[in-house]
Amino acid sequence: MDHVSNGGRRGRRPRPQSADLPFWRLTILLSAFVGFSVWHYLPTEDSTAERTAVPTASAEALVPTNSGNAPVPTVSDSPSVRTNPTTSSRQAFGACKWGGGTNCVVDGDTIFLDGQKIRIAGIDAPETHDYGCDSELALGERAAGRLQQLVNSGAITLTSIDRDEDVYGRKLRNVAVDGRDVGETLIAEGLAREYGGGRRSWCS
Q: Which pLDDT tens digit goes with each residue over 122-131?
């Protein structure tokens, strides 16, 4: 028989504690799921390294390639007369009237220095090849001989002018030896004259 309380209502049986078990199970499962999700999406060491790695050029890519056996040229390997507006050096000059050379004198206003053909700027010397008369040839040979003496007497200095080359491809340079202008010396000695543009006769 059911127990009847003082209020005339039937008493309720107490709810068993086992009814709270689904709530705890849900809490445990939810906590486990959240923990697994956090662990799964945490960045690993490999993935971090992959995202932060900075590409670098290989050592081979930084070395200039050369298809032949010749060394790769550097600035220091190039003749200074070709790379600097002003150069100074002591050289031994021979004569090369009929052909090019390394360091030599062609005529009274043209030399080769380090294999580069140089035309002395601002002067005109008598011709020794396409001369107009015997007197021009004789004076031209004197001018060439004197120029050879001058360039062999000290340190030669080349200075660039506003034009780099003439119409024949010769480098136009002021030439000095130990600070003394070679062109002015040749003019003062009557072996050359100031360049006036174009070709003028040396024959009277």
A: 999 999 998 9
